[in-house]
Automatic annotation (TrEMBL):
Enzymatic reactions: 3-methylbutanoyl-CoA + malonyl-[ACP] + H(+) = 5-methyl-3-oxohexanoyl-[ACP] + CO2 + CoA; malonyl-[ACP] + acetyl-CoA + H(+) = 3-oxobutanoyl-[ACP] + CO2 + CoA; (2S)-2-methylbutanoyl-CoA + malonyl-[ACP] + H(+) = (4S)-4-methyl-3-oxohexanoyl-[ACP] + CO2 + CoA; 2-methylpropanoyl-CoA + malonyl-[ACP] + H(+) = 4-methyl-3-oxopentanoyl-[ACP] + CO2 + CoA
InterPro entries: ACP_syn_III_C, ACP_syn_III_N, FabH, Thiolase-like
Top class in the EC scheme: transferase
Pathway participation: Lipid metabolism; fatty acid biosynthesis
Location in or out of the cell: Cytoplasm
Function: Catalyzes the condensation reaction of fatty acid synthesis by the addition to an acyl acceptor of two carbons from malonyl-ACP. Catalyzes the first condensation reaction which initiates fatty acid synthesis and may therefore play a role in governing the total rate of fatty acid production. Possesses both acetoacetyl-ACP synthase and acetyl transacylase activities. Its substrate specificity determines the biosynthesis of branched-chain and/or straight-chain of fatty acids.
Domain notes per entry: The last Arg residue of the ACP-binding site is essential for the weak association between ACP/AcpP and FabH.
Keyword Acyltransferase appears in the UniProt entry: yes
Keywords: Acyltransferase, Cytoplasm, Fatty acid biosynthesis, Fatty acid metabolism, Lipid biosynthesis, Lipid metabolism, Multifunctional enzyme, Transferase
Full protein name: Beta-ketoacyl-[acyl-carrier-protein] synthase III
Recorded name of the encoding gene: fabH
Cellular component per GO, a single term: cytoplasm
Organism per entry: Planktothrix agardhii (strain NIVA-CYA 126/8)
Length: 330
């Protein structure tokens, strides 16, 4: 039973200043602007330099979202940081909480890769609907350039860095209309950022694994097939839960992974291209940041207006996927 409604009242985003376009990338690996653009739709991406932390990007995005929502950081009850690339393996959310001045907020990291923002939105909503918290800050942020093999043209062309954030608030009207989230570990090996142990004998007969992480590996064909099949299904499930039809969606914001995936999903759902928001040409795949980054740009450009119905869907490593339908604004 829903006791409290939810409104999404503010959004914000931040990207690093370093820009790498396809022409520049072709100096690093054997590729070309035409090859990358025709296969992915990406023309450039933003990269964090060694002095730019995930926390800095997340804080900047959060501050913009908090300002739009017109609340005080001290009024935030909960901060969820959806990321796979925290500055600290123990988590970065608490440091972000401190830097924002959100003195009473509990904060934690959540890892669901490119589905992280959708999973975070659903998680945040449960705290509000049960009346536990009134104001929740959800941040999606990733610096995947840290873990890309820059000699592998199959993956290095895809990824960029960034952060996006939203503020969710308790409301007498419930504007989160429906959602569905899923996981299936059978295809786990299709997309990985895996630990690489290096054996170290600390005493005779006692060896531990002490190492680092491998670069990102991906089976692009399997991920494409998975997304094109599963994403329309989960969107239709979210629509069913909202008792709405696909033609009642104003905007579709998919995880910005590949323009071919965006086009194929929209075509399967009979959603016209004018309703599909895409900015991956400028930013590439920013993982958990991609949906809130695209949302923030569309809101600030005046495309998305209060009351518009927005369907979002994330999909990626795990494998995980999910969709959520909400009305923008109070």
């Amino acid at each position: 039973m829903i006791t409290t409604g939810i409104s999404i009242t503010g959004c914000g985003s931040a990207t690093p200043s370093v820009l790498l376009d396809n022409h520049g990338l072709s100096e690093r690996v054997e590729t070309s602007d035409e090859w990358i653009t025709s296969r992915t739709g990406i023309t450039q991406r933003r990269l964090a330099d060694p002095d730019t932390s995930l926390s800095q990007l997340a804080i900047a995005a959060a501050q913009n979202a908090i300002a739009m929502a017109a609340i005080d950081p001290a009024d935030i009850d909960l901060i969820i940081l959806a990321t796979s690339t925290a500055d600290d393996l123990f988590g970065s959310a608490s440091f972000i909480q401190y830097q924002l001045g959100a003195t009473k907020a509990v904060a934690f990291d959540m890892t669901a890769a490119c589905s992280g923002f959708v999973f975070g939105l659903v998680t945040a909503s449960q705290f509000i609907r049960t009346g536990v918290y009134q104001n929740v800050l959800l941040i999606g942020a990733d610096i995947l350039s840290r873990w890309v093999d820059w000699s592998d043209r199959r993956t290095c062309i895809l990824f960029g860095d960034g952060a996006g954030a939203v503020v969710l608030q308790a409301d007498e009207h419930d504007r989160l209309l429906g959602f569905e989230i899923r996981s299936d570990g059978r295809q786990n090996q299709s997309l990985n950022l895996s630990y690489r142990p290096e054996p170290q004998e600390i005493l005779t007969g006692i060896t531990i694994g002490q190492g680092t992480y491998n670069p990102i590996t991906m089976n692009g064909q399997e991920i494409y097939k998975f997304a094109v099949k599963k994403v329309p299904e989960v969107i239709e499930k979210a629509l069913f839960r909202a008792n709405l039809t696909v033609d009642q969606i104003d905007w579709l914001i998919l995880h910005q992974a590949n323009q071919r995936i965006l086009n194929a999903v929209a075509e399967r759902l009979n959603i016209p291209p004018k309703k599909v928001i895409s900015n991956l040409a400028k930013y590439g795949n920013t993982s958990a940041a991609s949906i809130p980054l695209a949302l923030d740009e569309a809101v600030r450009e005046g495309k998305i207006k209060p009351g518009d119905r927005i369907m979002i869907s994330g999909f990626g490593a795990g494998l995980t996927w999910g969709a959520a339908l909400f009305e923008w604004g109070r």
